[in-house]
């Protein structure tokens, strides 16, 4: 996860370094007997907590719009608290107001940005919770849940797909599938180990659950294949959703470590779940042959 945010971390270091250089060039160091160690302790602790927030964000979230709001809102707080701490060791001229502004202004702006990001995070979590509740609509047997990805497997998918086919055909509504395949996942496990493979699958399942709608159902169809069931969704809409998902999934790609993903979409016109899943396998094979929808590492 850290690799996705390396440019953010580099920018953050440069920002803090520029603040340090500006403070050093703008003022003079205080004598040790002028230090207020109680203020140093309080402001230093606040700074460390804000830095901890940054660490939690980049270690637990994939790159994306909500992550940007969370990260840069927290970074503004870190910048403000960092300059506030430097103020305990450096005395600035009375006429120089720039450092005072830089200490004060980033904090409230950062709080607003961070709050906006938290609202987006809350919406994501609500979507994931609805996805989890949706899995319980038809089957309650928790033995059908994959323990690694916390997604339902093929048995649950077949049962739900059969029910949705009958329901949508009786109501003359559209039904679509998204099929995601990890190319040569066995080779990835051999090169990097089973632990790395498990971590990747967990990240992938979390991203899929957060990016699809609450009415959609994501299942782990096989060890290296996922299928998303899209109720009330025609093929053109499924294609738009697939394109959005490709953009999000490309953030998982890494030239040295991550496997290649292939994503395909199809409209369900078959009268049985078994026939639909067979067609999904055919569509995926065609997509791999065409190579047009494969997510190559960046």
From TrEMBL:
It comes from the Bacteria. It catalyses: 2 GTP = 3',3'-c-di-GMP + 2 diphosphate. GO terms for molecular function: diguanylate cyclase activity. The chain crosses the membrane at residues 36-57, 69-86, 98-121. Keywords: Membrane, Transmembrane, Transmembrane helix. SMART domains: GGDEF. Residues 173-298 form the GGDEF domain. Its EC number is 2.7.7.65. InterPro entries: Diguanylate_Cyclase (IPR050469), GGDEF_dom (IPR000160), Nucleotide_cyclase (IPR029787), Rev_trsase/Diguanyl_cyclase (IPR043128). GO terms for cellular component: plasma membrane. Signal peptide: none annotated. One of its GO terms (biological process) is negative regulation of bacterial-type flagellum-dependent cell motility. The keyword Transmembrane applies. It is an enzyme of class 2 (transferase). NCBIfam families: GGDEF. This is diguanylate cyclase.
């Amino acid at each position: 996860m850290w690799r996705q945010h390396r440019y953010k971390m580099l920018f953050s270091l440069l920002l803090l370094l520029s603040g340090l250089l500006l403070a050093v060039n703008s003022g003079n160091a205080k004598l040790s007997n002028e230090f207020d160690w109680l203020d140093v302790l309080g402001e230093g602790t606040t700074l460390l907590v804000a830095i901890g927030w940054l660490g939690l964000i980049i270690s637990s979230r994939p790159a994306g719009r909500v992550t940007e709001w969370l990260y840069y809102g927290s970074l503004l707080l870190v910048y403000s608290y960092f300059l506030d701490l430097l103020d305990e060791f450096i005395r600035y001229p009375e006429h120089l107001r720039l450092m005072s502004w830089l200490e004060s202004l980033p904090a409230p702006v950062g709080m607003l940005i961070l709050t906006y990001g938290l609202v987006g995070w809350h919406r994501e979590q609500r979507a994931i919770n609805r996805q989890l509740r949706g899995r319980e609509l038809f089957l309650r047997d928790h033995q059908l849940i994959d323990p690694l990805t916390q997604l339902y497997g093929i048995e649950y998918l077949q049962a739900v797909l059969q029910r949705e086919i009958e329901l949508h055909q009786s109501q003359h509504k559209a039904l679509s599938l998204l099929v995601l395949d990890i190319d040569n996942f066995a080779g990835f496990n051999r090169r990097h180990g089973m632990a790395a493979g498990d971590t990747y699958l967990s990240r992938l399942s979390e991203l899929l659950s957060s990016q699809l709608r609450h009415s959609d159902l994501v299942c782990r169809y096989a060890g290296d294949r996922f299928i998303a069931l899209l109720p009330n969704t025609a093929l053109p809409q499924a294609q738009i959703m697939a394109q959005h998902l490709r953009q999000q999934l490309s953030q998982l790609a890494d030239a040295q470590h991550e496997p290649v993903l292939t994503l395909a979409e199809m409209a369900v016109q078959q009268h049985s779940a078994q026939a639909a899943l067979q067609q999904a396998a055919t569509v995926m094979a065609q997509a791999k042959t065409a190579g047009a929808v494969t997510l190559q590492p960046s």
